[in-house]
Amino acid sequence: MAADELPPQRKTLTGQATSDVVRVGLERQVSGDLYHSILIMPWRAFFGMLAAAYVGINTVFALLYMLGGDGALQNARPGNFADAFYFSVHTMATIGYGTIAPNTTYTNVIVAIEAFVGLVSTAVATGLVFAKFARPSANVLFSNVATLQTRDGVPHLVIRAANKRNARIVDAQFKMMLQHDTVTAEGDRIRKFHEVKLLNGTSPLLFLSWTLLHRIDADSPFKGHTAESLRAVNAELLVTVMGLDEVFVQTIHARHSYIVSDLRWGEQFVDMLDRPPGGPMRVDYTRFHQTQPQTVPPPVL
């Protein structure tokens, strides 16, 4: 199949907590993974879930109060769902305005049950909100593209990374992996992974920016490849970083991936540093993703 006939390449690793892969055939363990699912869901979905649970619980108790009959709630309008619902809200939140009050033993039992449910649900919601806020996260910026350029006469793969926070990541460890499709001698199509060795995979303090370098020599998985050959095997470059955040004092990690269309052959990144005479060094992050053609011919891998 020609390169222009190949289907559009999709990334298996995205910037979200989940990957761009559809998984089928796995038994869903809702109870076991519920806490994990809540922690990784977006804040909008999280508060939407809490609001839906809050309305749902109060609706259930409002219906229970209405089952007690017209005299179950003192000063409530007979058969009025709104009065029963707002009485449930007052009971769960322990507001106690006093306009409507339980009037029978049945209603008092329901009030006691709701007070307990409200106490437990408040504690659970508070714990979940705190867990989401306290969850350490990285804010590492990776360049949108990776360049294949010549350095000291040798082809190199170059990627930029930076810490977007005004803090330092101590002992940042970068790793890179190339994955691609291959066919075994038996005719089985599998996904193969190769370690991409970095010349500078460790940054003692990741604060401003860091340039990742991979020397494409005889041992490199990129050796002998072209853009067309990499695209034909659906190649994808995975980059991860792990380090200690000095503010959280906890280990954080980040990741990014590059497909063949993200590779820039014969280009180099634009210099980000300005060094004015007698002044402080200035880092211009508006140039972080910018590249420019090299003055030498594109490298041949």
Q: Which oligomerization state do the chains in this entry correspond to?
A: single chain
CATH homologous superfamily annotation of the largest domain: G protein-activated inward rectifier potassium channel 1
Regarding CATH, which class of the largest domain?
Mainly Beta
Which percent bin holds the helix content? 25-40%
The sequence of SSEs as H and E is: HHEHEHEEEEEEEHEEEEEEE
**Biggest sheet, open or closed, and with what strands and sense?**
5 strands, mixed
- Give the amount of beta strand, in percent: 25-35%
Detailed description of the structure:
The chain is of the alpha+beta class and about 300 residues long. It folds into two domains: about 30-135, Helix Hairpins, CATH 1.10.287.70; about 135-295, Immunoglobulin-like, CATH 2.60.40. Helix content is about 30%, strand content about 30%. It is built from five helices and 16 strands. The chain has helices at about 30-40, 45-65, 80-90, 105-135, 225-230; strands spanning about 75, 100, 140, 145-150, 155-165, 170-185, 190-195, 200-205, 210-215, 235-245, 250-260, 265, 265-270, 275, 280-285, 290-295. Strands 3, 4, 5, 9 and 12 form a five-stranded mixed β-sheet that branches. Strands 6, 7, 8, 10 and 11 form a five-stranded antiparallel β-sheet that branches. Strands 1-2 form a two-stranded antiparallel ribbon. Helix 2 (about 45-65) packs across helix 3. The model has no long low-confidence stretch (mean pLDDT about 90).
